[in-house]
Each structure stands twice: as structure tokens, then as C-alpha cells.
Design goal:
Length: about 350
């Protein structure tokens, strides 16, 4: 598999252009004048990357400029450009339409919505999410078995509850005429397990860390800001995998269709949130990491540092179908397997990470 790089631009005022077959990034330096020293305001830092070594570009800051020549060259090399808000919410994506030109796959994906394939995939989405929630809870528990027996028992009880709820995903009717009712039942199952999972997660975060529970948009505490930003980076990775597999990112099966909402991205991301983002955030805060906050959001430096942690986690190895692969490779393989499932070439099995 490819070892191409993901470039994250998180500094206001950066400019991206094409220069001699390379991506050139110019950053404006801040004033660094000291007594009796020449100031550096107005000077620029330059970074360069060969196009063939870049997988995608993530623009995670306002005030970033891109040249038309750069965009054209990115299209030629199949490099997508994702745009995230300051808090990590994806709002746009530039990519070549040729990346998703597999007509047969898309036709079968649309038809799957009204037959048994659609419900089967929706079940697998929930199974994968709950399976990974249970796996991460077991990961939390294994280091507490000897030193904190009470907490260990509480976590194991939560694992049993999540796994018990997961067993209910096959109680849906399976009748395509009841697809909306079955979807709502699956969302209810997902919600009940999620409440248990986040209650344990919240309880295990150190008391000195400001975290009272999971919040989505508008969060101002460090842990939720890290989670939201991490999910945004993961979201971009999953979207790219879906496009490369020839799937329609807007035709989902568990999440409700809505104009402008990439429902399939929201479906597929569910089996990776815990292993890529939750585990990374939990590990950082329990090792005493305190990201710098500015105006109730992550500072530029904190966002840059945390983005590197998420990208490192995506490079981490996990067991998958009897072999060891990088997590970002597993995401791509799962998207391809989903396309094959819609075409009737194989069954779809969610990825559930180790603990």
C-alpha cells in the first residue's frame, strides 16, 4: 500500500501553489523582534512536497489561499483537498469526478436502499460501532484489573451491557417495506449503547480535566474540542476512501438522507471513531496532556500537534482479515469491500479493532 503523506494546513495566511512539479506552501511568519535583533515580520517560511508523494491536503484554517495551477495539478494526481472549520467540522471537498466514475457500483448502491442489502449494511454499521465501543472499554479496563478492582468491575459491567444491546440488531424485521422503522430501531440501539459508553469515558477522564460529557457542535472544553477536531480529520479520510471505491458519499443507509449531508461517510466512519480518535484522546488526557485553548477553542499549536497524533494513529498497525495493516489502509479496504458487497461479490463485515 502507498506511503503517501497527508498535508494539514492549520495556519492563517498560508498560500499553496505549484512550483516546478511540487506543492509549495508559504507561511507568513509572526513578528519575532527582540532587543537589538532584526525582526522577521514579512518574511515567509516555505515547505515543498512532490505531488506524487501526497495523498491529500486538509485545509483546517480560515484565510488560506490556493492557486488554480495547484488545484489543476492535484486533480491530475488524484489528490483531494478537504476543508475543515476551525473546530474540525468538514464543509467542503475538492476532488476529480474521475475518482468516482464507477457507474455499476453506484447503481447497485442506490438499488440496495430498497432491498435486503441496505438493511444488512445498516446492521453492520451499528454492529461495528458497538463492537468497537466494547473493545475500547475493554482496553480501558485491562490496566485497572489489579490496581483498581472496583473501576474494573464497573467497566466490565458496561461492556456486558453494550454487548447485550448489540445482540438486538438482528431483531429488526428485515422486510424492505419496513426500512424506515428498522432504521429508527437501529438508531435507538446505537443511542442506548452510546450513552453507556460515554458515561464510562467521562468517568475515567482525570478529575482535573474539564470534561462533563460528550458535546458535539459548540463545545468549548478541551476534550470535546479534541474529539470534534479528530472526527473532522477522520471524516476527510473516510470520504476519500469512499470516493476511491466508486461509491456515492451522499447515499447512506443508517443516517437519514438530507441535501448536502454525506450520509454514507457518516455510516462508514462509525466503525473507526473509537479506534482512531477516542483512543488517541483518552490516552493523551490520561498522560496529563492539556492542549492550549484560545477563546474557548484549540490554539493553532494545539491543533497542529493533535493533527499529527491522529495521523500517527492512522499509520498504526491493526489486525485485519488475518494480516497486519495500517489503519488508513483498513479504511480504504473497508470502502472497497462495501462496494463489492453492493455488487454482490462478497459479504460485508465491519472492522472491530483489538484491545
Amino acid at each position: 500500500m502507498s506511503d503517501k503523506e497527508v498535508i494539514v494546513i492549520d495556519q492563517f495566511g498560508a498560500f499553496l501553489g505549484r512550483e516546478s512539479g511540487r506543492i509549495q506552501i508559504r507561511y507568513r511568519n509572526r513578528r519575532t523582534r527582540r532587543p537589538n535583533e532584526e525582526g522577521t515580520e514579512g518574511k515567509k517560511t516555505v515547505e515543498e512536497y512532490p505531488f506524487f508523494k501526497v495523498e491529500r491536503i486538509v485545509i483546517a484554517s480560515p484565510g488560506v489561499s490556493l492557486s488554480a495551477n495547484l488545484i489543476q495539478e492535484c486533480v491530475k494526481h488524484g489528490i483531494a483537498i478537504d476543508f475543515l472549520s476551525y473546530g474540525g467540522r468538514p464543509y467542503a471537498r475538492l476532488s476529480s469526478p474521475e475518482l468516482s466514475g464507477t457507474v455499476k457500483t453506484r447503481r447497485e448502491q442506490i438499488l440496495a436502499y430498497i432491498d435486503a442489502r441496505g438493511l444488512e449494511f445498516a446492521r453492520m454499521v451499528v454492529k461495528g460501532k458497538l463492537g468497537n465501543q466494547a473493545s475500547i472499554l475493554k482496553y480501558f479496563a485491562k490496566y485497572r484489573k489489579e490496581r483498581d478492582k472496583e473501576t474494573y468491575n464497573q467497566i466490565r459491567q458496561a461492556v456486558d451491557e453494550v454487548e447485550g444491546i448489540s445482540s438486538q440488531i438482528f431483531t429488526c424485521s428485515g422486510n424492505p417495506s419496513n426500512v424506515d422503522d428498522d432504521r429508527q430501531r437501529l438508531l435507538s440501539i446505537e443511542g442506548r449503547a452510546g450513552r453507556i459508553y460515554w458515561e464510562v469515558f467521562t468517568r475515567l477522564v482525570p478529575e482535573e480535566v474539564d470534561f462533563e460529557g460528550r458535546e458535539h457542535r459548540g463545545a468549548t472544553d478541551p476534550v470535546n474540542c479534541l474529539l470534534n477536531y479528530g472526527y473532522g480529520l477522520l471524516y476527510a479520510q473516510v470520504w476519500g476512501a469512499i470516493e476511491l471505491a466508486g461509491l456515492d458519499p451522499f447515499a447512506g443507509f443508517l443516517h437519514v438522507d438530507r441535501p448536502g449531508k454525506p450520509s454514507l461517510v457518516l455510516d462508514l466512519i462509525e466503525e473507526f471513531r473509537q479506534q482512531v480518535v477516542d483512543r488517541t484522546v483518552f490516552g493523551l488526557v490520561n498522560r496529563g496532556y492539556k492542549p492550549k485553548m484560545e477563546e474557548e477553542r484549540l490554539s493553532d499549536g494545539a491543533r497542529k500537534e493533535f493533527a499529527r497524533k491522529i495521523l500517527d494513529r492512522l499509520e498504526g498497525q491493526e489486525r485485519y482479515e488475518g494480516k497486519t495493516h495500517k489503519l488508513r489502509t483498513i479504511i480504504q479496504m473497508q470502502a472497497r469491500h462495501l462496494a463489492m458487497f453492493f455488487r454482490g461479490e462478497r459479504k460485508y463485515k465491519p472492522f472491530i479493532g483489538s484491545w
